[in-house]
Amino acid sequence: MLWQMQQYWRRQRARRHWMIFVAGLLVLTIGLSLMNGLGRVDRLLADLSARLDGRRVSSDIVIVAIDDDSIAEFAKSAGLGFGRWPWPRQTHAVLLSRLHEAGAKVVGLDIFMPEEERMDPLADTVLASSIRQNNPVVLPISTYQPAGGDGWIEVLKPAGELADSAEQLAHINLIPDPDGIARSINLREGRDGAAGGIWNHMALAMWELGQQKKGQQYLIPGVRASRNVIDAIKKLESEGPDGHVIGREWLQDYHMLIPYAGPPGSYQRYSYIDVYEGKVGAEQLSGKYVLVGGTALGLGDTFATPMSSTDALMPGVEIIANVLDGLLQNVHRYPAPLWGNIIFNLIPVLLAIPLFYLGQPRTVLSGIVLLMLLDLICMWLLRRFASVQVLPAASLVCLMLAYPLWSWRRLELAMQQIMAEFSRMRRENGFFRDPQHVYGDRLERNLQAFESAAWQLRELQQMVRQSLDELPYVMLVTDASGQVILSNTEARRLFRVNPPLPTMAFEPALGGEEFFGDTEVQAHHLSALLSSHFLRSLLQQYEQSAYAKALIDFMAEDSSVLQAGWVEVNDGKTGAPYLLKIVPRVMTIERSQGWLVTLVNLSGGQRSEIQRDQVLRYLQENVCEQLIGLEKNTESHRCEKWVRQSLADLVMQVRGFLDFEYAQTSIYISEKLDLSELLLHELARVCAEQDLPWDLSQIPLTESLMMKGDPQILSKALHTVVSLLVRISGGGKMPVIKVKQRQDFGAAQKMVRHKQVYLIFPVTDISAYEQKKHIFKQPVPQETLPAEIEPETLQWWAVNVTMTRHAGTVRVEQTERSIGVMIEFMV
Question: What keywords were assigned to this record (predicted)?
Fold first, then answer.
């Protein structure tokens, strides 16, 4: 109950922190979006989008440039050593005539002439007459704020009769941003009122004349000024300087972004002097929208644009050409409204929230980078295909801030939880100890404590596994669904994992950690293992035993729930009786987390009793036989020798029975040992017992064979092996000990290392081995022993059982000149 309360409050705390994180992220996104962009960052991103939004320029637009060449040529023709500006207005009259003769559709004269010509009073009349004769021509107006005008905006029109002669007057105002880059315009500006006027932009005026829309109602692109703003402007009326009642506030309407087609110089340019002299004819100018303006250095206005740098400014006349081009090709770009920016910035943040909740750190980082890239791509797609320029900096900033904040909070909560659990385990069971030497700051000390706990937990796991392997019966540990997650040596032996994986494996080359790899048993489901051995026995009890019926239902249906209980079953392969018991594996949360399955061989005790009876019966029969023979041969001169041999055979037979019984029924005590050294020690014992003249110090041990095992039982088995081989080889030459290693693929295609120790006896005659080799070929009986057994066979069975219970194998090999035993264990 206490654990459940702790879990509940921990979940509540985590949920509260998560809600604060999400709410803070959304509030920050909305707040940054309400600022309508992050200034320079958003402008740079918008410029990037504009540069990727280029297009082919219209061939219907031509710029007649007042360039350096034109100024130089006019200066020469006037006999001057420098260019004179402004030029006489008769010059512009001649140009308009040339354009009219070439068939220009509309002419926009981007030359501001607010004052009358002083040097030649007839110049204005000549130009005005040319404008009237060569219509349509658009002339620019200018605006300014007079000193002391209290925000009043004054309009400057072309001087005298020039304003009346033009087909339209138009403004050429731009709206540079705080960084000086021209990104937007208003297609209409002016002052509402009786004597006021709303002026088209020069590009709109030329488009209107060229499309013959003058005086008609048509749809003007751009974002309209707020209706409230327009109504307020109409109410703020006052008396103007000329006595007329006009709107005081200047109205800016139909706001739009300039749809730049390319960098400066994208449109067709002709030099003013070439057109003036007739070098550019009707083929180049017929049906064209012609813009006349200054491009020479220091002449006219130039602006930085998203398509250019400060080193390559764009003339104002070319900016007008870009706007006109957008009107002709119906390409318009609008700034997104405030609510549009908020929605656009919220979408990637909302998409990132489930990513933060469900993803791993690497996945989250990759997802955040992908969302940021998609954010930028969507910005460009909206500009290109929806004509809307959004400001994505708010979402980008929030995504960049969210990941480190999420990572920091995740690490903080993880460390708090780990240390809290470590403190609780140390306080409750006392198994975990604090590290002896700690250093560094708080984080470093916590990491050292966690590392110490991890090592102690591995030691505990190793102890549990070794304890399982020491059990004399089958033990399986499963999860709640019945999947086997842990098994011991008896389980691997029963379910025929051949060769069985080691219970007490060698020490790895690096470190002292035990090897406990996945086995073939772990790869199976409990239902498959039980079906392979006990299905027939369970089916026989289907009607009589409710638990047998429940087990069969579990094995037949994956959805069936495993139940606790016990039942006696028989192995379908060997017929051995077993007690099958399944109990729930209950953890501290007070509900089943899996199952503990035990299989106790009920014939184990019976077999031990049978084997003991066989030993006693054999001893009784053989002792009686030897005594009868002794009585019959009392007069024989060979009596003493015969008695000695008979008693020796009897002792060997008894020792074989006892060794075999001891190897099968003893409880093994696991200790760390070196098998090669243990083999050398037993070789020395046999040398001493049989008085062999061998100098064992000359036998080099090039490599150790570390393992876990029972040193007493292993010593007995190795002593038997050495004695048998010495007897067969004749004990002539000194043997050799070698340690080798091989590799192969085990279960689940994992590379497995095997270590082998060889004890090799050189021989000159292998006839003795040929007489005895059958004892090394007989398999160990699983049930009752045969009636007649050679002593050496019993001893070899004892060796086999010992090695098998240590998860190893043993076999005798022979060549023409040697006899040896190979003992192999898997590392």
Answer: Membrane, Transmembrane, Transmembrane helix
